[in-house]
Amino acid sequence: MITTYNVKLDGIGAVDVTVDEQGEGRPFLLLHGGGGPDTVASFGALLAQAQPARVIRPVHPGFAGTPRPEELHTVGGLAALYVALLDQLGVNDVTVAGNSIGGWIAAEMAVLSSPRVSKVILIDAVGIEVPGHPVADFFSLTLDQVFQLSFHNPAPFRIDPSTLPPAAQAAAAGNRATLATYAGTAMLDPTLAGRLATVQTPTLVLWGDSDQIVDPDYGRAWAAAIPGARFQLLTDTGHMPQVETPDQALRAIWDFAGASSASSAS
C-alpha cells in the first residue's frame, strides 16, 4: 500500500513523504540508497512475505520524482524526518535497515536516540571518513563503472542507459542530483564517526565482501565507531546485498532483529 504522509519537521514545516507499506508483524523501516527506491523494493517485498514483518519503505524526498522542500538538504534532516514519521505512525520496536546513503541515514537516526528504534542495521553504508579507505568517486564514474564496483558479479545487473526510455533516464538523472544534494560529492560527513560514540542502539554492520564502492575495512571502521556494534561479512556479494544476494541478506537481518529482541526482553 502506497501512502503519502504529511510529516511536520521542526525548522522546515510539512514534508510529503511517499511510503510503501507491506506485511504485518515486527516493524522494519527500510531505507534505500542513491540508486533510488527500486534498489530495496524487491527486498522489502521478500522481507514482508518471508517473515511476520511490517515493512515501511519511504522514498527520500526528491528521489523518483517526488517533491523535496528546499530546506531539506542534509542526511541529518532526513534522519529527523524519519524519526518524526515513526512518531506519526505510532510504531515501536522498529528495526531500521539502510543501504549505502540509507545506512548513513539509519546511523544518524541512531544518534538521535529515538525510543521507537530498537535496532539499526547498516548495509554497506557510506557517510564516515576512513583514512586510506575512501568512498569511490561515484559522481565521476560511468554507469558501467558503477556496476563493476557495486557487484560481485555485475553481468546480470548491467543496464545500457541509452536503451532506457526518456522518462527513466530523466528519473535516474534526478536521483543522482538529489543524492549529491543530500550527501555531497564526497558522500561523507567528517563529524559523523565521532558522534557515533553516543549510540546505544544495538547495531549490525552488514557488508558485502566484494564491495568496491566502500570496502570491507571501511565497514569494520563503522563497527569500531559504534559501541557494541557487530560486523558481519556476506560472501560473494557487493555494495547492494539486498539486490545481489537477497536470501543471504534476509537471513542476517532477521537473525539480528530476532536475537536483539530476545536479548532485550530477557
Question: How does this model look, in words?
Answer:
By secondary structure, the protein is of the alpha/beta class. The chain has one domain (2-257): Alpha/Beta hydrolase fold, catalytic domain (Rossmann fold, 3-Layer(aba) Sandwich). Helix content is 39%, strand content 20%. The protein has 9 helices and 8 strands. It has helices at residues 38-50, 75-89, 101-112, 143-150, 166-183, 192-195, 216-225, 241-244, 246-265, and strands spanning 2-9, 13-22, 26-31, 53-58, 94-99, 117-123, 203-208, 230-234. An 8-stranded mixed sheet has the order 1-2-4-3-5-6-7-8, with helices on both faces. Helix 1 (38-50) links the parallel strand 3 and strand 4 (53-58). Helix 2 packs across helix 3. Residues 260-266 have low confidence and may be disordered.
Task: Name a few traits of the molecule.
globular, 8-stranded mixed beta sheet, Rossmann fold, 9 helices, 266 residues, 20% strand, alpha/beta
Global mean pLDDT: 94
- Which structural category do the helix and sheet elements fall into? alpha/beta
What is the total domain count? 1
Radius of gyration: 17 Å
Question: Quick summary of this structure?
Answer:
The protein has about 270 residues and is α/β, with parallel strands linked by helices. Helix content is about 40%, strand content about 20%.
Write the topology of this structure.
Elements: E1 2-9, E2 13-22, E3 26-31, H1 38-50, E4 53-58, H2 75-89, E5 94-99, H3 101-112, E6 117-123, H4 143-150, H5 166-183, H6 192-195, E7 203-208, H7 216-225, E8 230-234, H8 241-244, H9 246-265
Parallel strand pairs: 3-4, 3-5, 5-6, 6-7, 7-8
Antiparallel strand pairs: 1-2, 2-4
Helix pairs in contact: 2-3
